[in-house]
Design goal:
The protein has 2 domains: 110 residues, 3-Layer(aba) Sandwich (Rossmann fold); 94 residues, Arc Repressor Mutant, subunit A (Orthogonal Bundle). 31% of the residues lie in helices and 24% in strands. The protein contains 6 helices and 12 strands. The longest helix is centred in the C-terminal third of the chain and has 14 residues.
């Protein structure tokens, strides 16, 4: 069974070149972030020119990361855009276009072999969560969390550094059908803060006028 790679570009030449360079992979082509489907792709290749100006790239990649969460990203750059590259952006590697023979396959293989398997335990500082048993420990003491509180904490810990707006959190934890307001996110954050205690602020950071993120 072929590994499926998602490609975000409107450049037909890049799409054709990738198809010829990596025939052993299945290629799904998307024209924008909104149309992405993370369920079927093991990695995404993003054409840098789809991001607009360099000033908007961080915002674009942050939106992308919220959409695909932990799936790896390979950026496609041109020689003249290399100086704009910033190591703080959410990507795993980059490649120059036009592609050199064998390089695309080599970079994809390097990224894919480096993707860790799903980990049952996630930890940060003195906080540990077990995603299989649905339990959370703080300083080796078990915390009594509701299902929503657990999923909220898990979302942040699995996506460290990614800023989630309140609407993002509602969509992922409560679902699109939820008709309540975004205030419920703040309520659950306060409950988590009271249960985790003084260490909470060293784990979950409030991003003013935006939402929340887990510290890296």
């Amino acid at each position: 069974m072929k590994i499926n790679i998602g490609l975000v570009t409107r450049n037909s030449e890049i799409a054709d070149d990738l198809k010829s360079n990596i025939p052993e992979f299945e290629l799904s082509i998307y024209k924008n972030i909104e149309s992405l489907s993370r369920d079927s792709c093991s990695l995404f290749i993003i054409d840098y020119e789809e991001m607009g100006s360099s000033d908007s790239t961080q915002f674009y990649l942050s939106r992308l990361r919220k959409k695909i969460l932990d799936i790896p990203v390979l950026l496609v750059l041109r020689v003249n855009t290399v100086p704009e590259l910033d190591s703080t952006w959410f990507f795993n590697d980059f490649i120059l276009y036009p592609f050199r023979k064998g390089e695309v396959k080599a970079r994809l293989s390097r990224i894919l072999t480096g993707v860790p398997e799903d980990n049952e335990e996630i930890s940060i500082g003195n906080l540990k969560i077990n995603t299989k048993e649905y339990v959370v420990y703080m300083n080796e003491e078990k915390l009594d969390l509701t299902y929503k509180e657990f999923e909220l904490l898990r979302l942040f810990l699995e996506n460290r550094g990614v800023v989630f707006s309140r609407k993002d959190v509602l969509s992922r934890i409560w679902g699109m059908e939820y008709i309540g307001g975004t205030r419920t996110v703040d309520v659950h954050i306060r409950r988590l803060r009271s249960k985790i205690g003084d260490d909470f602020n060293s784990i979950i950071e409030t991003v003013r006028n935006v939402g929340y993120k887990c510290r890296e």
